[in-house]
Amino acid sequence: MSGQSLFDVLSKAKVYDLGQAYWPNMPVHPFDPPFQFYLYRYHEYVRKSFDEMGIQPGFSDAISLIITSMHSGTHFDLPIHMSQDMKVMGIDVRPYQRDVGFKDLPEPLHSMEKVPPLLLRGVLLDIPAYKGLDILPERYAITPEDMEGAAQHQGVTLQEGDCLLVRTGYGRFFETDRDTYLYKWAGLSDDAARWVAARRPRLVGTDNLSLGVPAPFNSHRIILVENGIYTMKSLDLERLAADRQHISTVVVLPLKIKGGEASLIRPIAIA
Fold first, then answer.
1. Most CB within 10 Å of its CB: which of 43, 128, 186, 227?
2. Alpha helices in 12-158 (DSSP H)
3. pLDDT > 90: percent of the chain
4. 8-12, 131-135, 160-164, 170-174: which range is least confident on average?
5. Could you tell me if 222 and 187 are in contact, meaning their C-beta atoms sit under 8 angstroms apart?
6. Residues in CB range of 262: below 8 A, 6 or more apart
7. Does the pLDDT value for residue 14 go beyond 60?
8. Are strands 118-126 and 187-188 parallel, antiparallel or unpaired?
9. Strand, coil or helix: 101
10. How far apart are CA 193 and CA 164, in angstroms?
11. Crossing angle of the two packed helices 190-198 and 144-154, in degrees rounded to 10
């Protein structure tokens, strides 16, 4: 790098936090369990116990406890998260399910511990901006023409192995309007999902609750189940879009959960 360290290069870039916050009663998919967060240990009780046991008098700590599915808020999905007729990419997943997750999955299927740290070229398609809007209409189904038009308008091309980021504008409601976020979001039409799958990105991320409308699971079937493309949802793409950073470097570090089908994440974009 001609004498420049990677840090020198990155220090001049801007880092965009693409993750949403987590808190009790946060919006999660109506089919999923709620996100629960508790303080399991309080300072005053721990100090009393430590004092009584003679363990460093005056010292204390607090420890929190989370109870959640891996599909709360900003999260990462593997193909084995969904199936069609019990099959994922043509493989019957039933023999590989256990109470503690998936085990001995045949290739190309795998569980979360096999997902490497992801450093990908990010391509943001800002669909509202292309259409001259701030946000897409409620329950709007994005078309392939919208995807093509946004790419041309922004001067970008989605390449195989990229991370596609699709902005609908509904990420802004995650903390402010639970009802709109859970029930009124816009997303990919089935044909738009096929448009995406045909370009073979490695990862597809959206700022809404689920990938598609009006039938949300069709896009999952097309992208995850049939084509084995990773997905992430409930992103915050507002600042990236406001700065018109249509090309970035996206970094995603999922948890290495053995047998897992998904993971909570905090992705970033560097531009």
1. 186
2. 43-53, 127-130, 144-154
3. 90
4. 8-12
5. no
6. 69, 70, 71, 75, 76, 77, 78, 81, 112
7. yes
8. unpaired
9. strand
10. 12
11. 50
pLDDT-derived band at 4, boundaries 50, 70, 90: confident
Tally of CB atoms within 10 A around 107: 8
**Percent above pLDDT 70 for the chain:** 99
pLDDT of 54: 86
What pLDDT, on the 0 to 100 scale, is given for residue 121?
A: 98
Domains defined for the chain, CATH in brackets:
36-67 (no CATH), 75-270 (3.50.30.50)
Q: pTM for the whole thing?
A: 0.94
Asked whether the beta carbons of 88 and 246 are under 8 A apart, the reply is no
CB-based contact 225:83 (threshold 8 Å): yes
pLDDT at residue 254 is higher than 90: yes
Q: CA 115, 223, 211: angle at the middle one, nearest 5?
A: 100
Distance of CA 42 to the CA centre of its chain: 32
Tokens, residue 241: 């879009």
Tokens representing 224 are: 């995850």
Predicted confidence (pLDDT) at residue 141 exceeds the cutoff of 90: yes
Q: Work out the number of other CB atoms within 10 angstroms of the CB of residue 207.
A: 29
DSSP 84: B
Beta pairing partners, 121: 249
